[in-house]
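Hi U.,

Before I forget, here's the chain from the pilot set. I'm dumping it here mostly so it's searchable later in email.
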Amino acid sequence: MTGASSGIGAATARRLAADGWTVVAAARRLDRLGALAASTPGIRPQALDVTDPRSVEDLADAVPDCDLLVANAGGAYDLDPLADADAETWARTYDVNVLGTVRTVQALLPALRRSRGQVVLTGSTAGRWVYEGGGGYVAAKHALAALRETLRLEEVAHGLRVSEVAPGMVATEEFSVVRFAGDAERAAAVYAGVDALTADDVADAIAWVASRPTHVNIDLVQLTPQQQAGVGKVVRR
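Structure:
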């Protein structure tokens, strides 16, 4: 799985390993992956930068057999209104969230076809809802949703299952801190008064999708905190 060094990725790697999967945990930060593997039997670390085609090729070489790809690498890097948006930041967001997923799927597709396996994409409610300042991330996650639907159509004849797990507000240690360039106080304010989803909640959904019988394809699971009924309807307590 990609994006495995922290947050949803690390939680999912631990959960899948606990469920009996042999997990290749791939990400840029090998130190984090090493700690993850040391603490959890069944996890093997693998260096990966989804924006680097050569790095993705190395992943495919390291994983000649693949039953399940959890394409989790992604992120948001700003919250600027469109009038002030930086095109380079948008390009980075698209490269990581969308093109990185395309590269990874392409590289592992031969192995997935051989096993008649499964692809699970980590999407977002941002793939269906829009909000002020979220243009770059929203555009990328809408594209990821379209990617999932297209891949499902194209690979059905090969026996592949293709799914998306799309969470709403998830309080992880890094997502909003990265988005706000290290401003931890601003990041914490996003979740103030909200009993947000945890990384383990999302990992539980991914593990459930991956555990369905081979004749069942779960197209989409969208999960939100009880207090989040829509992008403009978050009740804070």
